[in-house]
Design brief:
The chain has two domains: about 260 residues, Hypothetical protein af1432 (Orthogonal Bundle), CATH 1.10.3210; about 160 residues, no CATH class. Helix content is about 50%, strand content about 10%. It contains 23 helices and ten strands. It has a four-stranded mixed beta sheet. It has a four-stranded mixed beta sheet with strand order 6-5-10-7. Helix 3 crosses helix 10.
Length: about 425
């Protein structure tokens, strides 16, 4: 049988022969039309790559990592280092392929307005949608399901926050297609030589501590500059607001939403039966809403690159994180009250706080280091004692709550800046 291959601009030819039944399934094919970066496409127009391409890339990287482990010295394997069975290897590569099978449209955007996330949806797809295909490819659907549920340690080879193959794939892929080349990642191939599986953990050998330290800092810069830049957060919140209106009005059901792709949900919003949704969609496309007020920690106010007429307000951490667990309904209520204070139509206001999803991305994730005696392990952050305070600084510099407004009403809004901050403080106090 002739091999089935997929050309990839980053990884070359990828052989998918062994997993073709999964890739040919309706559930996997749907990922062709789900963009990897969701609404970030409105900032980086060339970032049109899909979850489909990312999943195949993660699959290939998992195969390459396992292949490199085959060359592990025998005495190392006797100690349990990189010692995997053929069946375990198969399940790992299939999990890498299917780890995003449950993604809805617009990347993670809809997860803030629905009752479950892509992993919960993925478990359903594995159980009821591609179970047979997984078995045909030699995988164990129950184990794949447990990996997605974070109940099986081998899943960490794929989804570890620092060393997971899917993490490496989306970072290289996203930065390549977004054109954010200034954020060139460390040489992952060099780090790969020092990644090991030992005692149910992904570790690095001591030779790689400095490159991995740089890799962790790189992750944070990528999130801050690309994934959660002010404009990116604006579009995420805008689409969440529109989708919430569609869900609460009953014109769109949650179960149906998860089965849509990006183009289908954008089409529904653009042609919505609700005038307000259509207006919001149009304003998003025409970029008529701009930053009017920004609340940040005082030392980082200067990092807000914005127009001179934007009101910058020094704030504290409890204030900036107070709104991260508020649902779309409460955020709209806040927008209504801000609009009342400034005597502006609420449709001209968009309140964009620190979100729960984005904030948790900045939680520090360390790495175990296997020392040269192959017995002792140390924490990377204990080796580099500056890491925790450094990452804390990164997190603090990210914290911001922003109010966007139709440009012509910005003077009216900023004139009421102190009154608006008092309003937001009352919500902070209720949350506490």
């Amino acid at each position: 049988m002739r091999p089935i291959t997929v050309p990839d601009p980053l990884l070359g030819e990828i052989d998918i022969t062994d997993v073709a039944p999964i890739i040919d399934s309706t559930h996997f094919q749907r990922l062709r039309s789900v963009k990897q970066l969701g609404t970030t496409i409105y900032l980086y127009p060339n970032a049109t790559h899909s979850r489909f391409a990312h999943c195949i890339g993660a699959y290939h990287r998992a195969k390459q990592r396992i292949k490199s482990w085959h060359d592990t010295p025998r005495d190392y394997k006797k100690r349990g280092i990189n010692a995997l069975s053929t069946q375990e290897e198969r399940n790992i590569t299939i999990y890498a392929l299917t780890h995003d099978i449950g993604h809805g449209p617009l990347s993670h955007v809809i997860e803030e307005v629905t009752s479950f996330n892509h992993e919960e949806n993925g478990k359903h797809v594995i159980k009821d949608g591609i179970k047979k295909a997984i078995g045909t490819c030699g995988g164990n659907p129950t184990i794949i399901h447990d990996m997605l549920a974070k109940k099986h340690p081998l899943g960490r080879i794929v989804d570890d926050k620092v060393l997971g193959v899917e993490k490496w794939d989306y970072l290289e892929r996203d930065l390549h297609f977004s054109g954010a080349g200034v954020l060139a990642p460390p040489h992952l191939k060099d780090i790969e030589k020092h990644v090991v599986w030992y005692k149910n953990q992904l570790m690095i050998t001591s030779e790689a501590v400095h490159p991995v330290r740089n890799l962790i800092l790189f992750y944070w810069n990528a999130y801050k500059e690309v994934y959660f830049s002010p404009k990116s957060l604006f579009y995420q919140r805008l689409f969440q607001k529109m989708i919430h209106k569609e869900l609460t009005s009953g014109t769109l059901k949650e179960a149906d939403l998860w089965n849509l792709n990006d183009g289908e949900i954008e089409g529904r919003l653009k042609t919505s039966s609700h005038e307000e949704v259509r207006t919001l969609f149009e304003r998003g496309m025409q970029r008529t809403l701009h930053r009017a007020m920004v609340f940040r920690l005082a030392p980082y106010l200067h990092e807000e690159h914005c127009e001179k007429n934007v009101h910058l307000s020094p704030s504290n951490t409890p204030f900036l994180t107070a709104f991260e667990n508020f649902d779309a309904k409460i955020l709209e209520k806040i927008e209504q009250e801000i609009a009342n204070i400034a005597n502006i139509n609420p449709i001209d206001i968009l309140f964009v706080p620190v979100s729960k999803a984005s904030h948790k991305r900045f939680s520090p994730h360390t790495v175990p280091v296997l020392m040269q005696n192959l017995k002792e392990t140390v924490d990377l952050f204990d080796h580099y004692t500056d890491m925790r305070p450094t990452l804390k600084t990164h997190e603090e510099s990210f914290l911001a709550t922003r109010i966007f407004c139709n440009q012509k009403y910005i003077p009216k809004l900023t004139k009421k800046a102190e009154e608006i901050k008092m309003l937001l403080t009352t919500y902070q106090n209720r949350n506490e």
